[in-house]
Amino acid sequence: MNALVFNEYPIVINRALAKIIGLNESIVLQQLNYWIENNKKKGINFHDGHYWTYNSMKKWHEDAFDFWSLDTLKRAFKSLENKELIITGNYNKEARDRTKWYTINFEKLEGISQCISAKCTNGKVQNAPMHKGNLPQPLPETSTEINTEISKDIDIPVEQEQQSLLDEKNASRDKIPYDEIFNAFNSICVSLPKVIKRTSDRCTNLKARWKEYKSMKPFITVFKMVEESDFLSGRNNKWAGCNFDWLMRKNKFIQVLEGNYRNAQGLNNFKNRNNAVQCYSKLESEMQQRLLREKDDIEFDENLDNRSIMERIKNKAGDG
After folding, report:
1. 179's torsion region: left (phi>0), alpha (psi -120 to 50) or beta?
2. Alpha-carbon span 167 to 165, nearest angstrom
3. Inter-residue contact 176 to 219 (CB < 8 Å)
């Protein structure tokens, strides 16, 4: 089976509901219903007579709706609020926590269900109310793989279809090729630890770099420069701290891209820093030895710092 199509946990579309409230809105509503029902089974997040689910818009986007742009997702939630199909609340333990809680306005949804029943007499459209538990269950919260394929026989109004195509175009432009970048790093930077796990922090930093460049070319260039650098690759045994996460930091990525770690320049810089440390250590040692030899010859003041003492030593040497 092709990796792009699968038979587990797809996003489902209620065609009749999508015609009335919009395609994106119906997708979000189905997902919210799943998580609310899941919390109901667990007996958690029950307040004021309703079961709720909650998340920040950023987390909704990262965990469940990353096939859309963040703005598209915000519009879908806002549209559901304006249609009074979802109710928002705040039941966070900390007052400063502004994360929104969501539940479905089933009374409002019942009215839509009755409207669908009255108009759809051919029996082909599923029109059971969501709270009756007859609708297909959406994707679980813990999954990050979402099937965004929609059957071509869905009869969607022209305006909604145009908006859907526009959203699809935006999503394609903003979609981040995580796997392609991870694979490129593992293939090119053979001297460094391989990326194995797709963590939240790792994806956050990668997303920030992608938004800056929106092209694979800078990433490929940086990975090649890292592997060619004796310092970053660890071949000169001077440093072994370079890895994917270090490289995705904003200042590190641009430093490598600008050539600051090329062999000639990077190695020379390292040698210069090493020489500077050695020179400072030698100077400090000589100063301490001279202080020990000559402290009896100058007036001692415990409040003087080393610089003041050195000045007195210098003056005394001049007097001599």
Report:
1. alpha
2. 5
3. no
Q: Which of 29-33, 108-112, 222-226, 273-277 has the lowest mean pLDDT?
A: 273-277
pLDDT tens-place string over residues 210-239: 999 888 999 999 999 999 999 999 998 888
Domain spans of the chain?
15-143+157-174, 178-261, 265-319
CA distance 291 to 316: 12
- The tokens describing 140, both together, are 């679980």
Question: Which ranges of the chain does DSSP label H, i.e. alpha helix?
Answer: 15-21, 23-42, 57-63, 70-82, 106-119, 158-174, 178-188, 200-213, 216-228, 230-233, 244-247, 250-257, 263-294, 306-319
DSSP 3-state of 50 = strand
Instruction: Round to whole Å and give the CA distance between 27 and 24.
Output: 5
Whose tokens are 């770690």? That residue is 261
- Asked whether the beta carbons of 5 and 149 are under 8 A apart, the reply is yes
- Alpha-carbon torsion (25, 27, 31, 33), positive or negative: positive
Closest CA to 179 of 11, 4, 56, 7: 4
Backbone angles phi, psi at 93, to 5 degrees: -70, -35
In tens, the pLDDT along 234-264 reads 998 888 889 999 999 989 999 999 999 998 7
- 86-89: strand order across its sheet: 53-54, 101-104, 86-89
DSSP per residue, 137-193: P---TT----B----TT----HHHHHHHHHHHHHHHHH---HHHHHHHHHHH-TTSP
Give the C-alpha separation, 116 to 187, whole Å. Answer: 54
pLDDT tens string 77-98:
999 999 999 999 999 998 888 8
